[in-house]
Amino acid sequence: MNATIIDGRKEAALLRERLRPGIETFLREAGRAPGLAVVLVGNDPASEIYVQTKARHARSVGMTSFEYRLEYSSGEDEVLALVDRLNNDPMIDGILVQLPLPSHLSKARILQRINPQKDVDGFHPVNAGLLAVDEPGIVPCTPKGCLHLVRRVCPDVTGCDVVVIGSSTVVGRPAAQLFLNARCSVAVTHIDTHDVPAYTRNADIVVSATGVPGLVKASWIKPGAIVIDVGITRIHGADGKGRIVGDVDFDEVRKTAGAITPVPGGVGPMTVAMLLENTWACALARHGGGAANVPADSPDQ
Amino acid sequence: MNATIIDGRKEAALLRERLRPGIETFLREAGRAPGLAVVLVGNDPASEIYVQTKARHARSVGMTSFEYRLEYSSGEDEVLALVDRLNNDPMIDGILVQLPLPSHLSKARILQRINPQKDVDGFHPVNAGLLAVDEPGIVPCTPKGCLHLVRRVCPDVTGCDVVVIGSSTVVGRPAAQLFLNARCSVAVTHIDTHDVPAYTRNADIVVSATGVPGLVKASWIKPGAIVIDVGITRIHGADGKGRIVGDVDFDEVRKTAGAITPVPGGVGPMTVAMLLENTWACALARHGGGAANVPADSPDQ
C-alpha cells in the first residue's frame, strides 16, 4: 500500500483562493491593497527565485508586492535603515528579509529590527517567544505549512508522537513548538543526536528539515506514519540537469508511510501560502487597529 | 549501586558565595546595592514562603529586596501601574511577579508589562524568544538551575537524550529549549502523551516538572540516567504532617539512576540562586550601560 501523497500545490492554491474575497473587500474599504515588502541582499540565485515567487503569489491574490534589492556588499546600517523605513511605511503590512543574508551582516540584529507586528516570517524573538509560550503571535510560514499539511490527513493530532529532524531556529524549533502547542509529544533531533532512527521509528509524524538528501530512509519510518519533507536541496543528475530533492528517500519511504509530502510540490508551496496568510492577518490587524494575532492552530488555515 | 545525590542546597550556597564579592564592588562603585523587586498579589501561603525566601537570599548576598504585597482583589490596572513604576525605578534592576496570580488577572498581560531587561524570571516573550532562537537573553531560573545541576555530574551534555515531562511555559518548555541549546536531543512529554515511560526509558537525562507525586518510577529510568526532579507538591503524611515531595519515587529511583536531585534540597534552592544570578546580570548590564543580554534596539521595548 502506497502512502497518500499530500499535495502542497493544491492546498496552497485553495488557501490563496480563500484569501481573495477578503482582500478585494480590504481594497475597497482601505483604499489600498495589503502590502508585502520583501528585502533581498545580494544575488543568490535561489533567493532570487524565492523572492520572485513570493512577489508573484502576493500579487496573484491582490496584494501589492514591494521588492527591495540591495547589493551584496551593503552595510548593516543601510539594511537597518531600509527596515526602519518599511516599519514606518503605512502602505506596508508585512516585511520579509530573505535569508540567507550575506555573512558580514548580523542576521539577529536585522531580523530583530523588523516591527514584530509586520514580521510575517515570524522570526523576531517577540514572535518566537509568543509561540514558545503558546500566546497569539505570528508563526513562521514553513512550520505553519507543515502542520496544515499534517491536518489534511490527520485533523486531530492530540497525543501524536512527533519527531522533528533538524533544530534550526527558522524551521525545526518553531515546528516543534507548533506541534507541542497542538498537544503532540515532540522530540527534536539534529546533528548531535546519536541515533535519529531510534526516535523516528516510533513516531506518528516525522518532520525532516535538514537539507540532507536521502537522509530519511524507509527503515526509519513506522508503517503508516506521516512524513513531512521540508528539505530543499538542489542536486545534479547524471544528465547534468539540476533538480530539487528533499530529505526523504521518497520512492522507498512512500511504500511504508501512511502519508508523505513530495518535493517539490509539498511544503514549499505551503510556505508561500502561509506567508500570504500572515501578511493578510497583519493587514487586517493594522487596518482594524488591533494586533496581528494569527491563530496558529486554526484548523481552517 | 545508589545514585549520586545532587545537592542543590550546597550548589546554591556556592553560587551565592561567588556573587558576594562582585556585589560588594558594585555597592562601592554604584553607590547602591543591586535591587530586586518581588510582587505578590494575594495571600497564597506557599507564594508567601517563596517570596520571603527570595527576599532573604537576595539580602544575604548584599542585594536590596523590595517586596510589594497587593490585595488578592487588586485590579489589573493597579498591578500594571505598579509594574510600570518598578520598570522606571532606577534602584530596581530586577522585577519578579510571583505566580500564580489570582485568576481574574491576565498573567500574560502582567508578565509582558515587565521591562524585558528587568525580567529576572525570563518569562517575557522577548526573553522566551531569545531562548528559542538561542540568542543571549534572560533564562528562566528553574530550567537554568536544572541544567546547572546536570552539569555538576555531566559537564558536557552534547548528544545526551533528554526527556522533559511537563510542558509548562514556565519550566518544561524553557528547560527543553535550554537543553536543546546545549546540543542535547530533547523530547517534551505531557499530559497528552500516550506513553511517557516509552520515552524516559531511553533517556540519559529526565527532567520531571509535573507536580504529580510518585509519577516517575524506577521502571521508567534507564540505569545510570540523571534524574532532575522539579516537582514541589505538599502532601500530608499519616501523622497529619505536611511535607514537600517531588515527582519522583525517590527511594526506588535512586537504586537505578546514576544521579538524582532530592526534594527538597535539589532544584528548589537552585531556582533561587539562579534568580540572584539573573538579578546580578541585570544590575551589571544597567550599571554598565549595556543590555542584560536583551537587544537594546528591540522595537517592543
UniProtKB/TrEMBL annotation, chains A, B:
<dbReference type="GO" id="GO:0006164">
    <property type="term" value="P:purine nucleotide biosynthetic process"/>
</dbReference>
<dbReference type="InterPro" id="IPR020630">
    <property type="entry name" value="THF_DH/CycHdrlase_cat_dom"/>
</dbReference>
<feature type="binding site">
    <location>
        <begin position="166"/>
        <end position="168"/>
    </location>
    <ligand>
        <name>NADP(+)</name>
    </ligand>
</feature>
<dbReference type="GO" id="GO:0005829">
    <property type="term" value="C:cytosol"/>
</dbReference>
<keyword id="KW-0511">Multifunctional enzyme</keyword>
<dbReference type="GO" id="GO:0009086">
    <property type="term" value="P:methionine biosynthetic process"/>
</dbReference>
<dbReference type="InterPro" id="IPR020631">
    <property type="entry name" value="THF_DH/CycHdrlase_NAD-bd_dom"/>
</dbReference>
<feature type="binding site">
    <location>
        <position position="191"/>
    </location>
    <ligand>
        <name>NADP(+)</name>
    </ligand>
</feature>
<dbReference type="Pfam" id="PF02882">
    <property type="entry name" value="THF_DHG_CYH_C"/>
</dbReference>
<keyword id="KW-0560">Oxidoreductase</keyword>
<dbReference type="GO" id="GO:0004477">
    <property type="term" value="F:methenyltetrahydrofolate cyclohydrolase activity"/>
</dbReference>
<dbReference type="InterPro" id="IPR046346">
    <property type="entry name" value="Aminoacid_DH-like_N_sf"/>
</dbReference>
<feature type="domain" description="Tetrahydrofolate dehydrogenase/cyclohydrolase NAD(P)-binding">
    <location>
        <begin position="140"/>
        <end position="283"/>
    </location>
</feature>
<feature type="binding site">
    <location>
        <position position="232"/>
    </location>
    <ligand>
        <name>NADP(+)</name>
    </ligand>
</feature>
<dbReference type="InterPro" id="IPR020867">
    <property type="entry name" value="THF_DH/CycHdrlase_CS"/>
</dbReference>
<dbReference type="InterPro" id="IPR036291">
    <property type="entry name" value="NAD(P)-bd_dom_sf"/>
</dbReference>
<keyword id="KW-0378">Hydrolase</keyword>
<keyword id="KW-0521">NADP</keyword>
<dbReference type="Pfam" id="PF00763">
    <property type="entry name" value="THF_DHG_CYH"/>
</dbReference>
<protein>
    <recommendedName>
        <fullName>Bifunctional protein FolD</fullName>
        <ecNumber>1.5.1.5</ecNumber>
        <ecNumber>3.5.4.9</ecNumber>
    </recommendedName>
</protein>
<keyword id="KW-0658">Purine biosynthesis</keyword>
<dbReference type="InterPro" id="IPR000672">
    <property type="entry name" value="THF_DH/CycHdrlase"/>
</dbReference>
<feature type="domain" description="Tetrahydrofolate dehydrogenase/cyclohydrolase catalytic">
    <location>
        <begin position="6"/>
        <end position="121"/>
    </location>
</feature>
<comment type="function">
    <text>Catalyzes the oxidation of 5,10-methylenetetrahydrofolate to 5,10-methenyltetrahydrofolate and then the hydrolysis of 5,10-methenyltetrahydrofolate to 10-formyltetrahydrofolate.</text>
</comment>
<comment type="similarity">
    <text>Belongs to the tetrahydrofolate dehydrogenase/cyclohydrolase family.</text>
</comment>
<comment type="pathway">
    <text>One-carbon metabolism; tetrahydrofolate interconversion.</text>
</comment>
<dbReference type="GO" id="GO:0000105">
    <property type="term" value="P:L-histidine biosynthetic process"/>
</dbReference>
<keyword id="KW-0486">Methionine biosynthesis</keyword>
<keyword id="KW-0368">Histidine biosynthesis</keyword>
<comment type="subunit">
    <text>Homodimer.</text>
</comment>
<keyword id="KW-0028">Amino-acid biosynthesis</keyword>
<dbReference type="GO" id="GO:0004488">
    <property type="term" value="F:methylenetetrahydrofolate dehydrogenase (NADP+) activity"/>
</dbReference>
<dbReference type="GO" id="GO:0035999">
    <property type="term" value="P:tetrahydrofolate interconversion"/>
</dbReference>
<keyword id="KW-0554">One-carbon metabolism</keyword>
